Amino acid sequence: MKKNKKIVKISLALFAICILNIQCNEDVLNQPNPNALTPDSFWQTEEDAEKGIIGAYSPFSNILYYSRFEVFLSDYRDDVINGNGTSDRTQVSYFNTDPAGNPVKWVWQAMYQGVTRANEVLFRVPNIEMDQQKKDAILGEAHFIRAFNYFNLLNNWKNIPLLEIPFSEIEDPLSIVQATPEQVWELIESDLKKAQSMLPTSWPADQKGRATSGAATGYLGKALLYQQKYGDAKTEFAKIMGGSYKLMDNYAHNFTEEFENNAESLFEIQLIADGNAGWGGDGPGKGKGSGYQPDFAPAGFTNQDGMEVNQWAIDLFLDEKTINNEIDPRAYTTFFFNTTETTTYKGEVLEPKTYGNQRYDEVYKSTETTVYGNKYTDWAFNGLSQALAEGWHGAGNNLRMLRYADVLLMFAEADLLDDNSLSSEGLEALNKVRRRVDMPEFTSATMQDIEDERVKELTFERTRYFDLLRWGKVVERIVNNPSLKSNSAGTGAYKPGREYIAIPQNELDQNPNLKQNEGY
């Protein structure tokens, strides 16, 4: 308080001096700070370019993005998860989004933060004198990061502003309007093609996690698949099939900190348990660990509302046995569920286990049938007794965004839909995924087989809702089955258009040109 009073006195004294001195004008008061960084003073050296691109990656590990809150806009919306409670974290999943709600606003802002920083790199770095190979790689990363964020923005909100230059370079910010989805897709494709040609195939060991040409190719194929450009998607996926990427021998090794950035991973969010627990932001001292784990953890191992798994999902896993007449080993990696059956896989006997190495029947009553999440909890590696044992960011397990298994399944899908028949190459891609986990190989396969395989392979990997969206099945699978969201508010709030999220209210308030999405 004393300090504040002193500041007020000094301010009043300065104001009085200005009143008495006719030379004290606005120009004198508004002197530039020679020590303040500006775009013109910062972007000078190769080191500045390097700092700039690392800054563009940084929002990914923000708790307002992939470290935590993005999960409520992706996995929590699908037909596998039945989120508990009716907080602002579950509103999107039951189609009753509050445009002023925090998750909607926070994730949108974090995604655009990534776009903005990528735009700065693309605008400033070309003018820096530096090694051309390093410059190309940095620009390729910026193209990738911008495309990645626009892919997320488009598939979540559909009608979004398209910014291609730094905000400071836009003459009239209030002239910004929403682009058509086609315009956004065009930029995404263009950016990924540039990234594909500019990025290296790999990085040194101490720089793993940075985008590669393979990651750009994988996402370009995914973008083309989402637009139903099946032949073009196949062509891109084929470029990275049979090369340096391969399936890990053990499926479970894709979801533990011990095997991060492995041969199956095309791109993952780099998370780290560094002891920091700061809430929000992406600057120094802010936690960058796996803050979403408490939202997957079984009841009793989290202080969050959490979620349950809908019965149809576990039934899908259990309806088909391995070649050894056992449960699909992916079921144990993905879910924590009640069974006395075990599966022998890669020399290990699998059974339902969770934090503290406890079996399901050691945690709950023998009559309990609730199914919970297990993938990414990584309790066996870090020895955590519960999800928040070491705070929000107590786990450093990376979030895998695109795996080679997904590429193989997308190739099979594109192959089937390209001419309504599955070629031998498409069938082999599908069977590689199944063979890895001892599942019987298909001699032929339908689109339903591919859809089911994506559930078994990719549940809790931020894909399922967007699969349903691009297949046009959100209403069929979720809206028409309100019991899938019975732990929150059902699906009665649905209106046509609410497959997409409401545009954040603060964006509408700031720019009258922006229009709210249909249904809100």
What does it look like?
- With 520 residues, this protein is mainly alpha-helical.
- Helices cover 41% and strands 6% of the residues.
- The protein is built from 19 helices and 10 strands.
- It has helices at 2-20, 26-29, 39-42, 46-57, 102-124, 132-157, 181-198, 213-226, 230-239, 311-318, 329-334, 360-363, 379-382, 404-419, 424-436, 447-458, 464-470, 474-479, 505-510; strands spanning 81-83, 265-269, 307-309, 335-336, 343-345, 348-350, 353-354, 358-359, 372-373, 399-403.
- The strands form 5 sheets. A two-stranded antiparallel sheet has the order 1-3. A two-stranded antiparallel ribbon has the order 2-10. A two-stranded antiparallel sheet has the order 4-9.
- A hairpin with a 3-residue loop joins strand 7 (353-354) and strand 8 (358-359).
- Helix 4 packs antiparallel against helix 5 and helix 9 runs antiparallel to helix 14.
- The radius of gyration is 25 Å and the shape is globular.
- Mean pLDDT is 93; it is low at 1-29.
